[in-house]
Known about the structure:
By secondary structure, the chain is mainly α.
Amino acid sequence: MHALLSTPVHSTEDARLGARRRQPRLIFDFIDGGAGRETALAHNRSAFDPIKLDPKVLVDIENRSVASEILGMETGVPFGVAPMGM
């Protein structure tokens, strides 16, 4: 478990609740919320709900990498953050 996390993260909801505890309310509400009737937010959540994290133990991790390609550019992490303003 990471030193900054007080509980393990097993789902997107676990990550969301951890962020809620650690971020100032204004920042969390901005990132967590949606616009208008929040229909896009509901669609995104329903798309992620079926995904279950399957921890692997006792497997060889010597040659693992989380590097990925995003928009044709090599990145060391498999995700990105879109530009946003407040």
